[in-house]
Amino acid sequence: MEEQNKKILLVEDDPNFGTVLKDYLMMNDYDVVHAKNGMEGFEKFKKDDYDLCILDVMMPYKDGFTLAKEIREKNTDVPIIFLTAKAMKEDVLKGYKVGADDYLNKPFDSEVLLMKIKAIMQRKATDSVADSKQFEFKIGRFDLNSKLRFLKFDGGEPTKLSPKENELLRLLALHENDLMPRELALTKIWRDDNYFTSRSMDVYIAKLRKYLKPDPKVEILNIHGEGFRLVVNGNDK
Amino acid sequence: MEEQNKKILLVEDDPNFGTVLKDYLMMNDYDVVHAKNGMEGFEKFKKDDYDLCILDVMMPYKDGFTLAKEIREKNTDVPIIFLTAKAMKEDVLKGYKVGADDYLNKPFDSEVLLMKIKAIMQRKATDSVADSKQFEFKIGRFDLNSKLRFLKFDGGEPTKLSPKENELLRLLALHENDLMPRELALTKIWRDDNYFTSRSMDVYIAKLRKYLKPDPKVEILNIHGEGFRLVVNGNDK
DNA sequence: TGCTTTTGTTAATGTAAGGTTAAACCTAAT
DNA sequence: ATTAGGTTTAACCTTACATTAACAAAAGCA
């Protein structure tokens, strides 16, 4: 069973410490992107989705709090851990009320950091009441429950979906009525883009079409050379 | 608002080190009971409820692992932290698979210990939102009494459940209609996640299905690669 | 138009996960 | 020492998935 590694954005200006920390986290099966300052950190953040941000507070140009604020403007959900100097009191930190999930005084025990990360990730995982919306879709007369991997037609018997079927349909639903680029699915779901994965994806499209047949208003259209489009007719706009 | 201090059982044979550690923990607002060896540790454990156990591994008469095993028989939930010699490798420790929540190499940084304690307490606190003191469940036409380990059909003769059967069914019931991840049961009940424990779990699923057969509306569904789902049909929504 | 590339669909294949039953193994209690 | 209850391991079988192959049909392009 393969599980996707969690992605961490690490923003730390001290190159030595940053590199060591990055390596340590990667050894513990996290995907880590290391930015050397606040600017770069924000650029990287915009370019990708992260499960967690670890921000050094003391940085030139753009400090951790300012960066956090910008990040929050784009995404209210990512957990943030601040690395602070020993001296700082907690109440000082609270003043910035930017919604930190944790603070860690430098220097810190790397194991402690790991634990905090785990705890936060787990909390987020169980929190999912909030983002359950991302897992349930109405597609014409169908209901897709992407967490439990089933598709229901008119509230009847649910059809089980395989992981790939499920993820693909979910991606299409996320882009309902819009182009879902081939490449997006391939990189997100298959994590590889070549002739064979592409053919495999086509096979899955065929399967999904079969599942969706009961509702004639629901179609998966191909946009030649570009990707696919899940449309629900009558859902005009 | 008054909050009760957390209670810690400390089992450590070195009187000096033990006393120092005890004082340190008490200074940090924990109630600490200090036992000087494994025997005494177990006696004290039986006499009271603890939020956490800190066990030295290397002790005369009864080592920490043996003690932990006894503790686990009485209580599957208390978090346990082991104090180990530097030399011990983690995989050696895992062999004992007694469900440690953490290991700490002696000598260790007392602040690190504090943080680990905090982390564990917090984890327990959030865990228990879900599975707190719930021991009675209605599952279709069944009643599960998880404290007394029996399952009743239509209020008739109760079927006795073995500890593992019971815990597994309870976990499923806690997640009724929702995914109960395989991994969750394995780490919570078997305290180890490998091929064999996983197969063992499957055996238990089969047993539970047999028990639940009398009510056709109750099913344990598999979600391939993810886990199981206890559903009660007609309990729609 | 004819040729190439992309997509549609179905079937075949290989592997991993899960289902089930029975035997082996442990351990506590007799 | 024997036994009974509980659990794990083994063995064998079925189902679920993903990939690849094979061939057909569209779409784009020269």
From TrEMBL, chains A, B:
Keyword Magnesium: no
BP GO annotations: regulation of DNA-templated transcription
SMART domains per UniProt: REC (SM00448), Trans_reg_C (SM00862)
GO CC annotation terms, alphabetical: protein-DNA complex
InterPro entries, alphabetized: CheY-like_superfamily, OmpR/PhoB-type_DNA-bd, Sig_transdc_resp-reg_C-effctor, Sig_transdc_resp-reg_receiver, WalR-like, WH-like_DNA-bd_sf
Keywords of this entry: DNA-binding, Phosphoprotein, Transcription, Transcription regulation, Two-component regulatory system
Pfam family name, one: Response_reg
PTM sites of type 4-aspartylphosphate: 56
Domain Response regulatory: 7-121
SUPFAM superfamilies registered for this protein in UniProt: C-terminal effector domain of the bipartite response regulators, CheY-like
TM stretches of this protein: none
Residue span(s) of domain OmpR/PhoB-type: 134-232
GO terms for MF: phosphorelay response regulator activity; transcription cis-regulatory region binding
DNA-binding residues (ranges): 134-232
Keyword Chaperone in record: no
Protein name (database record): Response regulator
